[in-house]
Amino acid sequence: MTYLRPTPEAFEEIIQCIGIGEFYGAYHGRFFHEGYAVELDSAAELFVLGVKLARYKDELGRICDVGPHQDQLGLGIIASWPKSLFNTEGEA
Question: I need a labelling partner for 17 at 20 to 30 A (CA). Which of 30, 40, 52, 54 fits?
């Protein structure tokens, strides 16, 4: 089965529409993780974001199926999805 791979810009637009968290952009996390991230204030926000992202399954493809890599940034959380789930080459 072929899955849609949104561009990072399309993902950013959806995050802005949802209104939870702030798009962080490219993220290089622990254990060699590379992805695109969203900055959140709490684990509760991450949960709500996951629920709201599910409404965009047609636009986001497997991003809705894959749990994000998580790091803590002081009092906040960063949730990052692997770059392999995104279209960074201009092809769908």
Answer: 30
pLDDT at 4: 81
Helix (H) or strand (E) holding 5: none
Q: What is the 8-class DSSP label of residue 65?
A: T
Q: What is the pLDDT of residues 15-48, one digit of tens each?
A: 999 999 999 999 988 778 999 999 999 999 999 9
Q: Which residue has the tokens 């199926």?
A: 65
Instruction: Give the architecture (CATH level 2) of 8-83.
Output: Roll (3.10)
C-alpha 5: how far from its chain's center?
12
Residue located via tokens 């509760």: 44
Domain boundaries along the sequence of the chain: 8-83
Q: Which amino acid is at 64?
A: C
**Mean pLDDT across 46-64:** 92
Q: At what angle do helices 8-18 and 43-53 cross, to 10 degrees?
A: 110
